[in-house]
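Assemble and predict.
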Amino acid sequence: MLIEFTLNRKRVAVEAPPDITLLTLLRDYFNLTGTKEGCSVGECGACAVIMDGRLVNSCLVLAPQAAGSEVITIEGIRGPDGGPNDMQENFITYGAVQCGICIPGMIMAGEALLMHNPNPTRAEIRTALAGNLCRCTGYQQIVDAIEATARSREGNR
Amino acid sequence: MPEYQYIGKPARRVDALEKVLGTAKYIADRKLPGMLHARCLRSEVPHARIVKLDVTPALAVPGVRGVITSEDFFEHGLYGFPVKDKYMLAYQKVRYVGEAIAAVAADTPEAALAGVQAIICELEPLPGVFDMEHALDADAPQVGPDRPDGEHPNFLDKLIVRKGDPLAVWEQSPIKLEERYTVGPQEHAYIEPEGVLAVPTPEGGVVVYAPNQSPFINHGNLALVLNLPHNLVRVIQPPVGGSFGGKDDIIYESSAQVARLALITGKPVRMVFSREESLIVSYKRDAMRMHIWLAADPDGTLRACKFDGLLDSGAYASESSFTAWRASIHAMGAYRYDACHVDITAVYTNNGYCGAFRGFGNTEVCMAIEQAIDEMAYKVGMDPIDFRLKNCLRLGDETVHGQRLTESVGLAECLMAVRRLSDWDRKRAEYTRRDVACNVSTTNDIRRGIGVAALYHGTSLGAEGQDYANATIAIEQDNSIDITSGLTDYGTGSRTVFTLIAAEELGVRPERIHMQRPDTDTAIESGPTVASRSTMLGGNAMRIAAMNLRQTLDYAAADLLGCELHQLIRHGEAYVGPAEEPVPWERVVAHAREMGLALSAHGKWTAPRINWDHHAGRGTPYMAYHFAAQVAEVEVDMGTGNVQVIGFWAAHDLGKMIFPQGAYGQLYGGIAQGLGYALMEQITFVNGYIQETNFESYLIPTAVDVPEIVGTFIEAPFSHGPYGAKNIAEPAMVPTAPAILNAIYHATGRRVRDLPANLERVLLGHDLAKGGSPRACKLGLHIA
Ligand code: FES
Ligand code: FES
């Protein structure tokens, strides 16, 4: 079937079977491999993307459900110069990245949080990350990076 | 202490940019034109003889391009170190659920699955061994290989430590403890499931992209089982999505399978596991049963320790004899005793199989001994930190193994640091004042407790093996610098550590330096990347390589500036001579080229010789030790048994910190893994069938389970470490579980001596009877 939607701010249309997930659609049909597969059952958040302003696990979304929606993946998170944005830069500065496999999902979760709550507490950040597993970092530096991003975005407002 | 330009200063992880942008290509992200998809036929029974295996029907399935069995490997693909007992594909027998029997490569994953289903495989079930206590019974079914030495075939190894006669001391002692502790298996739960990609080369060889920890071991195995000369095999490590000790044997096996399929079909072949396949098939941290006797004087002086441990290696040896050795060395904890015996016995069963996992035996024994030490502190009526301070190893002490500690012993400082940081004395007094007797019927009864655990952890391999590493460094035509190491970075940050060391020694900005991906064609073999040895071994090798190159550049600079070597000083990257006119680094490099000097260098570092007498159970097991203390504060809901860790403090003597964000990251991440080990991570084998097949049943800590952690590093430098550095990756997690368990005891008055301390163990003190079944496990093997 033909699935039309907005992907990283571009209108796209793709012919795909109706029984695949949004995760498969992104990875296999658009070659957007920044969105990772860690469990396929909605438990790890490695596949998290922002869909119509909400954080979703793309392994739990059927591809046709994306029709007409606006989807942002890690490839759509960039600074004005096409390089890393401030959140991504902070992930580097605060040492939030180890093996990196969870990091795209973590950044999507961070961005989704700041869309709705621009000034979260550390506890609120942790709650927002509760659906994203990281086995390497113990989360602390990820929380640091998101907190620092929130503070500087607030300051620039 | 000398002032460094880059060592110990905040830095950018060299591979962080591609990871935050989402452009890093892990195996599952790599595709090649014409690439085939591979999948294994796996055993659905824990122990069986392979009576019939006919793969020809699979070859008739549309899209299937190749099928292999153990017949396709040299000597049936037998491999393993130190014990050769496993096959790249099962030969004659299967010994655990999930063991690979045959592998299929096909145009699509669906065709590969159809191919697997078409294989005719008849298994004749054999009785299994599911309880390690009965593995060595005379009539126990044979799981392990034949033992020509007359030992029971299910006996893998026994490791001992001997000093004096602890039981004699114990009998006489006024204060004694005898307790049993158990730990279950733990899953590594790297968020990237296993995957490998093999590409056949025009010259008849194969390139394997494999997220393994030790590409050179993979390389050696591949050459052996594929019967190819070493130069026709190349292993490259792509970004690795977590490992923690887990991505070795299982990746070697998958590598051999895809490599053979690639050679047979002439096409690239990739195999990627589902989470279910990963959980069922991969090796785990070993389960252990431990029995401890401790004796002390009324004044709190520890006198004797006897420690018996039984380790379940599962169906194969993997690294278990090394794990058991490390367990034996650390089993008594970082304390002085007049007498100490340790006996760790490793046995074969049909409970999956076990291999390396962060802490490598010490994580298991530390959970037991640090609780036992805590129990002793209560018995003698001392504060747990005071009791540890009274007995802990200090500079100049001799360990029970007979090793004199002559430098770099920071344990007492660590204990005092966590005492201060955690506000221990106040909280201890406040939480103790309440009646510690339990009343489980009270709902909404939330109790707080605070607990401590101490640790020592031998650096690098110790007497486990040859301890050396190699590094290379070269200046390219564009004046960028390429460095290589035979040790790899699977998320640990070692590539950044090596980059900082090279920058420090050469006096150039880290941005000039490119640390290449580990590749057996370009790097030099350096032993395995295990045992938290990268910073020390690889770091020293890199330091030497960079020093060698710097000497060349210094000669060129002195020649250019017309002065003596000792007159040179550095101003940033620039060289300055007596004329005080700075000369840019690039000009010195250009001048070196004109002089015909080689702008590349090699560094090799070999650890000082140490020795361990396995029969006597005495010697010098490790050249140095990492010391640490951790404190956990918990809230226990006495109505539900729920434990929330609300505060955590850790002080670690790592010798010298090189890459701060990396060191703290290792610390926080290790503590999170230890927290999971303590409270929620449970692997259950029911008659050989694993019950936890995805993250909805195998729970690992989330951001709300892990508290804010306060970490601090004590730097007691080690003279043989680069800039004094020792290690951090493994020790970070080792004392976490006992610190939490000791805090639970402080809160509730209840000892949980079996891990994990799940709700029912905290609430009721025992397990609820649970039925299990093979169902989820078998289902997991079928999920595409
Ligand atoms: S892959 Fe979607 S939540 Fe794990
Ligand atoms: S950085 Fe490895 S899982 Fe998060």
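Chain A is about 35% helix and 15% strand.
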